[in-house]
Specification:
Blueprint (H helix, E strand, L loop, with lengths): L3 H13 L8 H11 L6 H11 L9 H22 L3 E2 L2 E2 L1 H4 L2 H19 L7 H25 L7 H27 L3 H28 L2 H4 L5 H4 L5 H9 L2 H11 L6 H14 L2 H21 L5 H15 L4
Antiparallel strand pairs: 1-2
């Protein structure tokens, strides 16, 4: 049984040994660049950890872990283009360091490399793993489109928002875990449970992210407090508030939230007053805990010996009980 630290060491070593020195240089160098940025490596760690629930031979899952990490970083490259972001993990984004066309092609190539990694897996389980991989790949695209569509909506419903973040965030965590469990030899029931763990954990993670945007410490969170409010980004906080208010107050709040003319600090202050009235802070804490408990219950039900679950409790606590 491997500790989370040893699993992360295996992942970093595998990434360092990726063969990305081919030509043309301007295709492969950006891939080396983003893969070398670091990050939490949560998704590949989930692949290996899920495999380790059922076997100590986790090296067989390394190609799948690399495939998941390559695909995740591909989505970041394209997200940065769509957001016109200048910085990623404290470093210049690829489309700014090189150019937009190079960044698009880099992302495309990373997708192909991810499938090349999957092709190294045992042929007997490859079809089901490819199905899981394709499911989260198209799901992420659907979630991204929903998020972009929300920009033109005055407000969205709770169900719409939860569906969007499930696709954008949870589905990849769920898929990474299920792929690792399949490789490790899990039963069908455990594959479903480990998927529910990932889904609920992902929802708790994103809701916690929404919460920290308004109630976190900017020095710890690493982002400007109230950034979502300034950009009129639909979050669960704005949805809870909208649902709480009467019709007149709701219309006033929505107009305020979608305003593009108010000075940033004034807008943040006014919106936070509405959040206080709607008791959003406690509502969000309750909602995060709801999904945290759902994720924990899924781990508890897995048909494995208790000590093997410890890594998952560590991951869950690290992801949700965070300040950044």
């Amino acid at each position: 049984m491997y500790s989370l630290e040893l699993i992360n060491q295996k992942i970093e070593s595998a990434i360092e040994h990726l063969d990305l020195n081919a030509e043309p240089k301007n295709l492969y160098e950006p891939i080396r660049y983003i893969m070398g940025m670091g990050g939490k490596r949560i998704r590949p760690a989930l692949v290996l950890s899920a495999c380790n629930l059922y076997t100590d031979d986790i090296d067989q899952a390394i190609p799948a872990a690399l495939a998941v990490e390559l695909f995740h970083n591909f989505t970041l490259v394209h997200d940065d283009i769509m957001d016109n972001a200048e910085v990623r993990r404290g470093m210049i984004t690829i489309h700014k360091k090189w150019n937009q066309n190079t960044a698009i092609l880099t992302g495309d190539a990373m997708t192909v490399l991810a499938y090349q990694m999957l092709a190294q897996l045992d042929a007997s389980i490859l079809p089901i793993i490819v199905n899981v991989f394709n499911s989260f790949a198209i799901g992420i695209c659907e979630g991204q489109q929903m998020d972009m569509d929300f920009e033109s909506h005055a407000m969205v419903t709770r169900d719409e928002y939860l569906k969007m973040i499930e696709l954008k965030t949870s589905i990849l965590l769920k898929g990474a875990l299920q792929i690792g469990a399949i490789i490790g030899g899990a039963t069908k029931n455990d594959i479903e449970l480990i998927g529910e763990f990932g889904r609920s954990m992902g929802l708790a993670f994103q809701l916690q992210d929404d919460f920290l945007d308004c109630y976190g410490n900017s020095n710890v969170f690493g982002k400007r407090i109230g950034g979502d409010i300034v950009s009129s980004k639909k979050t669960m906080l704005s949805i809870i508030t909208s649902d709480y208010l009467d019709v007149k107050s709701r219309n006033e709040f929505i107009a305020l939230y979608n305003s593009k003319t108010l000075p940033d600090e004034l807008k943040i202050s006014k919106v936070m007053e509405y959040y206080h009235v709607a008791n959003v802070k406690q509502e969000m804490l309750n909602l995060v805990d709801l999904y945290f408990q759902k994720a924990k219950r899924a781990i508890d039900l897995l048909n494995v010996k208790a000590p093997r679950r410890d890594v998952f409790y560590q991951i869950l606590n690290k992801l949700v009980d965070r300040k950044s």
